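I'll show a record.
***
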Amino acid sequence: MTVASGRRRVGLIGHGAVGSVIAEGLERGVEQLSLAGVYAHSTVPDRYRIESFDELVERSDLVVEAASQEAVRAYGPTAVAAAKDLLIVSVGALSDPSLLTTLRAGMGRLLVTNGAIGGIDQLRAASLLSELDRVSLTTRKAPHALVRPWMSPDLLDRMDNGDEPTVVFDGPARDAVERFPASINVAATLALSTIGFDRVRVRLIADPSAVSVEHVIEATGPAGTYQFRFSNAASMTNPRTSAITPYAVLRGLSDLDAHTVIGF
């Protein structure tokens, strides 16, 4: 693959529902960015497949993880130790304090995506005035997108055969991202941006009538009271994630090198 001169080279981990869209977007062209290659265990087009992670790091200025929390743990420390910026999609991996410390201590910057939610800038600004008192996230998805191996037969039966919404989780963000590692990474982004993994409250609802992925954020504090609601189309290839997620990554990558700051 030919890399355009002067462009920041982006190496990508993963080529699934999110990674494949990011790769295609970078290949089509994002200002000041180019696709250095993709490292993945899944099928990747030969034109940008890279066989080893070490080679990906060598060829990249910035590495994007779009695979899994396991991939963050396996490859993230190597990327930041090599002075490469690392942008994480599977933000739930950062609920591990030791991993978060390791990644923050690297020579490269640790970046996270907003993914399927917004309002983070406002909540961070409110937190600068004074720590928020309460932050909650309520997420509603189709039942089949929330099925997990640890669920009881009774819960699975209610999810599969019931016609009413079922609360499948109600607890701290730390437990949410561990129990639903591919479904609720936005909870980790919210926790890192506000009052932490143990204080952000998360409710996950399996709703047979859901036609979108809905996230509702509520927060209160000295700066004010906030509510943000997002109803995103689900990915066609992975109903556990929102179709907008890879485009949030592409937008974030573009902003890193933008000459004009919008909304500052």
About this structure: The beta strands are 8-13, 33-39, 62-65, 85-88, 110-112, 134-141, 166-172, 201-206, 213-221, 224-232. The mean pLDDT is 92. Residues 69-81 form the longest helix (13 residues). The chain has two domains: 8-115+245-256, 120-232.
